[in-house]
Amino acid sequence: MSRIVVTPLSALPESIRRYRPSRVVTLLSPEHMIETPEGFAAAHHLKLPVNDIAEAWAGEAPPAEMHVSALLNFGRAWDAGAPIVVHCWAGVSRSMAAAYTILCDRLGPGHELAIAQEIRSRAPHADPNRLIVRLADQILGRDGRMIEAVESIGRGVLVTEGVPVELPLILPARVSGA
Q1: What SS3 string covers 20-71?
Q2: What is the span of the domain harbouring residue 135?
């Protein structure tokens, strides 16, 4: 089963070695942007130079519609034959929002809450960037459902840096009752 792996920058080399992804998404501030990892064609490495801010007016390089559109196009071009690694500086905010966006696009409307809950269950530290989620919600025509779902899982456990997290491309069946 293929998956999205969300990781902090510090764990990127190990994540590439361990998961052998076919694609990498980097969301870093413009001044901290990395080169394409060795062994990857530039076309398989999406670089999104954005600051981790939740309001467009709050910084010089906010996530914008063009960034989220590029992310969606890149995710749609991924054949899922091998994992995709998505990372930002800490693996908590921008990368979690990007993974959430790709999953919402892949699984289609009506799964926003289940995807957010799955992210929370696998990543107690996840705090998806609200601006990226808001832009994705608009582009995908989700009428606020993505935003509501992310708000419903809360901000997550405060950490300096997250750990690599595997997110499958399918939602597990949840057993109700006890």
Answers
A1: CCCEEEEEECHHHCCCCCCCCCHHHEEEEECCCCCCHHHCCCCCCHHHHHHH
A2: 3-168
Domain membership flag for residue 177: no
| Res 178 pLDDT > 50 | no
Whether 26 contacts 34, CB under 8 Å:
yes
Share of the chain above pLDDT 90, in %: 90
Can you give the C-alpha Rg of the chain in angstroms?
A: 15
Find how far residue 95's CA is from the centre of its chain.
4
Domain count, the chain: 1
Whether 91 and 162 have beta carbons less than 8 Å apart is answered as yes
Kind and range of the H or E element at 165? strand 165-168
